[in-house]
Amino acid sequence: MKKYVNKLKINKFYPAENGTRKVLGELEADIMDCVWCGGTVSVRDVFVQINKSREVAYTTVMTVMGRLAEKGLLVREKNCNAFIYSPSISKADFQKKTAEEVLKSLFTGISASALSHFVEAVSSDDKKKLEELERRILKESEDSPEGDSLN
Q: 19-87: which CATH topology?
């Protein structure tokens, strides 16, 4: 992966959506999925792939890919008369960074009561996820010089 903009900025969050669609628009998520699967792709490659499942204009795909490059999610390189694109971050790393940013913003200034409701909601959905969260929190607090603060 190349030149990923280190600070992922989440401007929108769609809780009802799945996967990357929680933070990317529908077309952005479809494009990123194509690029993550294809590695290095052209706009035409992505356009053809997306048009297998829905109709979208070539120029729309080109514009959105340009914007994803401006956001730092894609690397754009000139190749003859066209640009080729590659992901600047793996899908797994994108999901990890996204989760970090969403949780960081969610827990900033959170009250103990709200945190308690969060734990109850997670534990009612999936006990294994809560146990994994607890394990990771303990590991982080052991590794962190600040100890167990929630800031």
A: Arc Repressor Mutant, subunit A (1.10.10)
**Residue 70 and residue 83: Cα distance in Å, rounded?**
14
| Burial class of residue 105 (count of CB atoms within 10 Å of its CB; 0-12, 13-18, 19+) | exposed
Domain residue limits, the chain: 19-87, 91-143
- Per the CB < 8 A criterion, the answer to whether 128 and 121 are in contact is no
Q: Is residue 88 within 8 Å of 5, Cβ to Cβ?
A: yes
Mean pLDDT of the chain: 79
Q: In this predicted model, what pLDDT tens digit does every residue of 71-83 receive, in sequence order?
A: 889 999 988 888 8
Confidence of residue 35 (pLDDT cuts 50, 70, 90): very high
Model confidence, pTM: 0.70
Contact indicator for 122, 137 with CB cutoff of 8 Å: no
What one-letter code names the amino acid at 18? Answer: N
Query: Cα dihedral angle (123, 124, 127, 131), rounded to 10 degrees?
Result: -10
Is the distance from CB of 23 to CB of 12 less than 8 angstroms? yes
User: Which residue, 82, 13, 70, is CA-closest to 46?
Assistant: 82
Residue keyed to tokens 């929190």: 137
